[in-house]
Amino acid sequence: MGHLRRGGALAAVLTLLLAGAAPASAAGPDRYRNPVSAGFADTFADPVVVRGDDGLWYAFGTSDPLREGEGRAHRVPIARSADLVDWTFVGDAFTAGQRPAYAAPGSAFWAPDVRRVAGRWVMYMTVTDTTVSDDTFDTAVGVATAPSPAGPWTFADTPVVAPRPGAGGGYLWTIDPSQLTGADGRHWLYYGSYYGGISVTELSPDGLRAVGTSTPVAVDNKFEGAYVLRRDGWYYLFASTANCCAGPATGYSVQVGRSRDPRGPFTDRDGQRLDVSRAGGTPVLTQNGNRWIGTGHNAVLTDLSGQDWIAYHAIDRAEPYLDEPFGVNERPMLLDRLDWIDGWPTVNAGAGPSDTARPAPVTTGPIDARFATADLRGWRAEHGRWQATGGALTGSGTLTSRTRIGGDLRAETDLRLTGATTAGLRLHGVDVRVGRGRLTAGAATTALPAGLDLRDRHNLAIEVRGQQLVATLSPSRLGDPVAQVSARLPRPATGNLSVRAEGGRAEFDNVSAVRLYRPARHTVPDPRVGPVLRGYSDEFTGGLDPSWQWVRQDPAATVSGGALRWPVQNADLSGTANNAGVLLHDAPTGNYVAETKVTLDLGEDSVRNYQQAGLVAYVDDDRFARLTQVAIWNTRQVEYGYELPFAGQPVYGGSIVGTPGTTTWLRLAHRVDPVTGEHEFRAGSSRDGKRWTWGAVWTFPAGTTPRIGLVAHGGATPAVTAEFDYLRFHS
Fold first, then answer.
1. Which pTM value belongs to this model?
2. Could you tell me which InterPro entries the record lists for this protein (predicted)?
3. DSSP state of 7
4. Which residues are paired to 48 by β-bridges?
5. Exposed, middle or buried: residue 522 (CB in 10 Å: 0-12, 13-18, 19+)?
């Protein structure tokens, strides 16, 4: 998304770690460093990356200035790369005066999504201001088409999704579009944000119009920035949560749910739905204590080895703004490995965003034919006639690479049937071909979606691991398979790769074969939780222990029957109010985990802003990290809020960590960075005290002495009492 949020209220409530920093080009051969956009931009928010017909990679970003001091927003900037690491600015997708007929003068274009639909390139984007009303945020989803990712791009004169009046006034946030072609070949568009939630609508076959009735898939006031892909029969909805743009307190992060149907319902790893008041969401990407915070608004791409990567933006906490404080948030593009472990995606096996040199994506290999020239000396014609012209290979019969390949590998090609009845690849003696309404691998076969036009370019990919071969056909190679088939090889084999066309001519491009990626099998460990430190802990069995200290004592807080009962105060800590009570306890030195169990009946669905209770790591009223179950509009969330002084004033933001119950267990895992001396606090939550969701890390400067405390504040109407069973410290 761009910069706007639903007023200030949402922003106000809303270890194996990686360290270091340098431009991508400084990392050395076959390695890279984040941010990958450093060579052409200081900020490149809401990125999406596609592989073009020319075999190069194209990235698109939100309308912002690219460099500090530039002062002029680019209108969907485009960058190009041969290796996904070193990028060059291509230009803007749209000229200064170019806009669709329904867009108001001065409208910005945010969060583009680019796909191949019906044989051409299609871009969906947020149009921030339309002619529908005088409201300057009556947003719509616009669409443009182009013959290549580099353009030229031409707007359609009607929006895909028009502005939608909101029941609470103004217009629902019709932003952050993301397209998907489903397993049956139908096209879908996901869109929306906090005000209105995320919805999905079917698209017309050309991808330019919404048809039918939209379906809500993620609750309002929690999610935006949808991105959906299909894997192993599941549709995965990635969505960003919390605030994108709170400068040094930004806690934006990516969560995911999955469904067997593109219309949902989507549920997380614990079975919690994403479209209900107590919405779930399995963490995919969140800040880990290094330089990067606000890690969100993602896209997913696949390199030539089959390894998935996540492209996203983040904020360097040491340089959070593009120019002056409190202006444009500086959000460069980052790239990290996306692993799939036990059916769920996670970044760097759960370690989170990287800022050290890392192995680079695989973008070339032993076979990597782009057919930019007529030279076919690396190939031999088994039969038929073949020629390379216009950047593609055309012919019929069989053409075989002279390079022998073997072992676990991935081969792929872009192809079109321009007269052939079937066409495809031959690998290790197995023909993988499309045509006559089917995708076939040896004796195995599956039907293609009805109406699929193989005269349009599609990507055919083959992965061989051991003796298992899996072939996939997709329109955009962006997690959008329309057909998949598996075959068993009689034995691991070594041989040559061939392209084949029968019954006429076919067009092939971007033919490659490289070693298949090696998947991560295990996530990095969660924080260690050792034995209870009895000397620091309090079970609330004999009144309030004298070791507790109050900041603004609340006489309504009482201890009896093994619990601390604290009526939620009509007070707060965020901003300049600083009128809420804080009950503090000294913490152990070194590494520890603080834990509490809190019961707070916040009901469901109703607006009870911003009643909350939970743990706090506290230095003073303007420097704290607060982990609470909280009512945010109609939702119930576990928010990990953070405030720090910046440029002469307190700045507040937050991240979301798990799903609250009426009773929620909360943990803060503390460690001291041995290099910087910073205090790092990682947040965790649980609905049963057994299965934990771990999330973001907030940091405190070296030389501070954070204490651990309890809070219950945010609003006294309706009256509700928080009940704390204990505060425990674990080694």
1. 0.96
2. ConA-like_dom_sf, GH43_arabinanases, Glyco_hydro_43, Glyco_hydro_beta-prop_sf
3. H
4. 60
5. exposed
Q: Angle CA(586)–CA(589)–CA(592) in degrees, nearest 5?
A: 90
Cβ pair 193, 217 in contact under 8 A: no
Using CA atoms, how far apart are residues 247 and 330, in angstroms rounded to an integer?
Answer: 8
What contacts 472, CB < 8 A, 6 or more positions away?
460, 461, 462, 463, 481, 483, 484
Residue type for position 486: S
Write out the DSSP string of 9-48: HHHHH----------GGGG-TTEE-S-GGGGT-S---S-E
- Indicate the DSSP class of residue 348: G
3-class state of residue 170 by DSSP? coil
Segment 82-114, tens digit of pLDDT: 999 999 999 999 999 999 999 999 999 999 999
The whole-angstrom separation of Cα 656 and Cα 283 is 9
SS (H, E, C) 472-526: EEECCCCCCCCEEEEEECCCCCEEEEEEEEEEEEEEEEEEEEEECCCCCCCCCCC
- Provide the strand spans (E) within 407-493: 409-417, 422-427, 430-435, 438-441, 444-447, 458-465, 468-474, 483-488
Q: Is there a contact between 484 and 440 (Cβ–Cβ < 8 Å)?
A: no
Secondary structure class of 675 (helix, strand, coil): coil
Q: Are strands 140-146 and 549-551 parallel, antiparallel or unpaired?
A: unpaired
- Residue 352's pLDDT is what? 98
Closest alpha carbon to 118 in 221, 59, 205: 205
Residue type for 162, please?
A: A
For residues 651 and 243, what is the distance between their CA atoms, to the nearest angstrom?
A: 12
